[in-house]
User: Fold this.
Amino acid sequence: ENVAAFLQRHGSRPLDEDATVAVLSLLEMQRHAMLMYTSCGWFFDELSGIETVQIIQYAGRAMQLAESYCRRSCEIPFLERLALALSNMPEHVNGAEIYAKFVKPVMIDLIRVGAHYAVSFVFEEYGEETDIFSYRAFREDYLILHSGQMRLAVGTILIRSLITRKANRISFCNLYFGGHTLNCGVCSYLGDKPYLAMRQEVEQVFNAGDFAAVIRLIDTYFGMHNYSLKDLFRDEQRHVLQRIIAGTRQDFEDKFISLYENNKSLMGYLRETGMPVPRYFLTAAETALNLKLQKMFTSETIDVGRLKEDAGEIGSWNIALDRVALEFIIRRRTEKMMGALLEEPENARRLSEVLVLVEAIASLPVVVNLWQTQNMYWTMLQSLASELLAGDEDTGDRNLWRNAVRNLGKLLFFNVPEVLAAAKGEVSRGVVPVLWNEKQLNNGSAGVKPDTPSPVIKEVSRFSV
Assistant:
């Protein structure tokens, strides 16, 4: 609607579909022509840097759009000039080489978008309409056949740019062998009769199990217009490859864990006798223990006893942990459990689980940022202050619960007595040390201290009474 209103307001006459596409394409060309002069891209002294490559990509897109309405190539004189700009890195030579390496391969058109759709079609469940970044694919006809792990996908789609409104009807035939191997032909629409003939022929030979004949038919109808997983857009490519390697990765993980578990007593014996432990034993141990920790913190239940045992083995063998990955997994799990506790703060089971988890984390040589967990505990503590300050005449489960809440605060480096005293109004003017102090940082559980104090806690660290 906005585009139609813009064209009506500024156009000298009503525009048909082709004229609308031309106007929008030329405006998009102008936009990229302006973007390629972005000053930060030319600020650096190396052409192959990501900023300057992005600028050259803008230029490439501007030329791509311009050539649809020019009678000459814009790219050739552009590359002649770009070749005069030398790279400081010998392997990149000059700007023209950088263009060929980093810009040309990522340029897309409607056929390339259609190829992305066709290749991913055997992995994804697409609807009648599918948005692919700034394009929309309309499925007009399709056929999917299965034979064991083999799949055949044949179809016709319409690809339309959501920016320029330019569209192209595309035919495809994709024979998937399993794993990462496929043979996919893509081209502009073959025409009604050729398409129906192609579909009928490949269906017949595929059902007969003659997969070599399917490949020959793809070559006959699509020629050299073949595509593979390499032609998927990067995000989808990674997604598909992750799905493909999932089974193989699981086999590798199980084998590493089995190797370590079956040989760790031998490793211990070698060390006791003064024999050097072979490096490949330690490599298996490192991989296995990292995997075990990751699996433990992503499983439904956490075996704290096993966690402490693994932590001891990590220290014993001086294992190098993948601290970045583990910190993220542990932090997310802790925040999830603390969030559940915040919803039901008097749930003794959840409180016990969080308490045991935070205590167990302290045994790991991983610095976990508990900023968000501390924020949630602070919120919970404020809501429970009156309950925690109730007389100690209560006995049994209620006092056990109160003690558990206080102990959790200590593990999260809160000065719980001071916070509760402040809530009761029994604190003199000045600073109430609600968060950890220097002694706690130096002597406390280094494995769980956050990198920076919580802003929420800092806001309430002063009380005036």
